[in-house]
Amino acid sequence: xxxxxxxxxxxxxxxxxxxxxxxxxxxxxxxxxxxxxxxxxxxxxxxxxxxxxxxxxxxxxxxxxxxxxxxxxxxxxxxxxxxxxxxxxxxxxxxxxxxxxxxxxxxxxxxxxxxxxxxxxxxxxxxxxxxxxxxxxxxxxxxxxxxxxxxxxxxxxxxxxxxxxxxxxxxxxxxxxxxxxxxxxxxxxxxxxxxxxxxxxxxxxxxxxxxxxxxxxxxxxxxxxxxxxxxxxxxxxxxxxxxxxxxxxxxxxxxxxxxxxxxxxxxxxxxxxxxxxxxxxxxxxxxxxxxxxxxxxxxxxxxxxxxxxxxxxxxxxxxxxxxxxxxxxxxxxxxxxxxxxxxxxxxxxxxxxxxxxxxxxxxxxxxxxxxxxxxxxxxxxxxxxxxxxxxxxxxxxxxxxxxxxxxxxxxxxxxxxxxxxxxxxxxxxxxxxxxxxxxxxxxxxxxxxxxxxxxxxxxxxxxxxxxxxxxxxxxxxxxxxxxxxxxxxxxxxxxxxxxxxxxxxxxxxxxxxxxxxxxxxxxxxxxxxxxxxxxxxxxxxxxxxxxxxxxxxxxxxxxxxxxxxxxxxxxxxxxxxxxxxxxxxxxxxxxxxxxxxxxxxxxxxxxxxxxxxxxxxxxxxxxxxxxxxxxxxxxxxxxxxxxxxxxxxxxxxxxxxxxxxxxxxxxxxxxxxxxxxxxxxxxxxxxxxxxxxxxxxxxxxxxxxxxxxxxxxxxxxxxxxxxxxxxxxxxxxxxxxxxxxxxxxxxxxxxx
Length: 752
Hints:
The protein is of the alpha+beta class. It is globular and about 90 Å long. Keywords: Signal, TPR repeat. TPR repeats lie at residues 641-674.
């Protein structure tokens, strides 16, 4: 623990070399709280008061707590939780992190519809989120994550664990002017906020200057404050460009990583405070439809509406949060025969008709959102609409295994029926897979091949696709490492999108020193903090003498920002892993080991931390420590296929083949569809001399996979099946003509 904290302190000390000047800090307006706004903005305040934003976080009072606390019990996984009142307060009795019964007071409620959750105070300033919630529509208690089998006492997913911590995971988006204030040395929080709930100042900024203007406009001095308008607003949102408004909402309505522990001031750049999650396979379907909880922005950035300048307030009332109409009138304010002068490129035609949607007018099937904004249910009861505004494509859904809006209603008819209907209704539409969806769908089975790389680069280079799609394609090139076509990579570093520039800078971590020196220094002063971070990380091992004095200064400044960002998230195991990576880049193995240990203290089931620790043991040539580490990892995560796979491969490297095969068999049993695990198992079987068994294992892998073909050819050669080996090698070379073959393979052909 100590080493991790001294490394954190070192980073913090480095970060303090460029503080905000006291006179500048004094000019930032202070927060005045929403009651001050009510006197002049009564109508807006009344709309906000019953909004989801207002209910985002409230004290646990009789008016605010909606759940049944009338001494009622709820059981899940054999654990009984009792909800009751005492002394006009709300309480629960349930198992603590050690599995022992414990009574705790409910301090706060969270949310209003369709569910409400509850917060409990723990030692060290922690607020923890109970994962049993109240369904406000069905009026019952339920488990928010019933599929989680590891949210049990002693696990980090238990409601008292790090992943259910309110201060570090949720509070920023449920409060106004939130400051996390995590203390790494004591693993405690001293969190602060202006108000709980998403209040006026969460969107408009601190109101001190605006109140002064409102009270005495004749003597108000705009120059007394930093970055305010003529009426004292930090962000008035009057005549605000659509992108600024979207970024304001996106701060919370997005799947992203925070770059600080504090709420940013309204109006500041999203990319200076958050790193947006791209269209990754665990978050989105290949066609960009929502899969995991992604909170709107990543979906919306894919849409034609975003490209046309549509913004949140075109559809949502900004104070009540409600949509402007509950039926098709919401969409027909623009999609109609007269069009909308604000969006002149929109075709002028009748959309709300049976001729267009082929359903009875006003029926559920005739609602625009039913086809173009299908829902995904999260937290068991919370239906959220996909904001990519896609078009149903049953043929594509059949080919790629993606959800289809038609079948979500017509569940008994099937995709073939839906394809026929779509072909009949829209005969001029190309029904098959197209665009990036097909490429992303095929990439997961073909990654590693040159064809897959070429396909994703084709998407990345096509400016007809949205920036988030292009960046997501480029991100898929990361595993190709030094084999990337570097001449083509330069253009991405100059792209208009910070998403694309950021991924391109990450890719260049694998480029030669010469290329990095040529291309990355300019990004150290990029407008987007996410890009500066990516460039700095990719230049960590660049010799100082290879840089000019100005470049060294820019690198130092970018690294300082990056260090501050990591430390701001030190309560989370991922941040500790980032500290470990930074320490290794600086060749500080003790600090890296300490940060990894801290990550495992926070989350003993953190797979990546166990793997990284084992890699460090191996790099330091300590097989005794590596074995202990992997034994401990297996005890902490007995059902982890990744741990079993890594342990098996490590034992094979030590020529302990019997034990290696046992671990790899366990890995495949736990995750039978993982191609890489199957290939590793086949490779180790061949290393152990079990070539026939290796061929059986590898037979299920597609011949589109060049590495699998190599393993098959090698097993055939070892079995002296030379002709079969040659045919397999020819298939491999047809897939990848540049594949490097060992001498034994080349000699096989030279004998002819």
